[in-house]
Design goal:
188 residues; alpha+beta; four-stranded mixed sheet
Length: 188
């Protein structure tokens, strides 16, 4: 009887060992699947970040296009106005700001947030052979210093009369009108 009991016990031990091995294998399979799921989660997170970056880029492009459209529309209705009024209209067209913020802070926001405008400003500064940092500083005070007349020369271009022959101010004014796609002539 001991032999039979010993054999039964050995059989049970063998069955338990088989079940333990099966559980160990299933545990390994689950760990592998968990690692695969974690890798897929990381991929999804990277894709989400890429999509968010593209969304932000598209929003920036949309706002830039909208600003250009509004600047062109503004050009069609300008009539006899001064540059200060034109800058106020530009500031009103900048997204994300309110009139309570003031014109100069909104223009400065365009300088800080609108990459397309910054590229135009950089190109105009290079063309005028003035340092970009001086053009940026001028942009930060352009509203206060722009007081001369801007009148339509013809239907094709506006004449911009500047109070000073400052190449930095000319570069900033050019950048604003170039960014908006508004034809202009600078009169000194």
């Amino acid at each position: 009887m001991q032999t039979h009991a010993q054999a039964t016990q050995d059989t049970l031990i063998a069955q338990l060992n088989v079940q333990i091995e099966e559980l160990r294998i299933k545990g390994l399979e689950l760990a592998t699947k968990e690692a695969q799921l974690n890798a897929k989660d990381e991929q999804l997170q990277r894709k989400d970040a890429q999509l968010e970056a593209k969304d932000a880029q598209l929003a920036q492009m949309y706002e830039s296009c909208r600003l250009q459209y509004e600047l062109r529309a503004m050009h069609r209705v300008l009539g006899r106005r001064n540059l200060r009024d034109a800058l106020e209209r530009v500031a009103d067209a900048i997204p994300g700001g309110s009139q309570e913020d003031g014109v100069q802070p909104r223009l400065t926001k365009m300088l800080q947030k609108d990459k397309a405008f910054l590229a135009v400003l950089r190109a105009e500064a290079q063309r005028a052979e003035v340092p970009l940092d001086r053009a940026v500083e001028c942009m930060k005070t352009i509203y206060r210093s722009a007081c001369q007349n801007i009148a339509p020369h013809d239907e094709e271009a506006a004449e911009v009369h500047l109070s000073a022959k400052d190449p930095v101010q000319r570069a900033v004014v050019r950048a604003i009108f170039e960014h908006g796609g508004i034809p202009y002539r600078i009169i000194e």
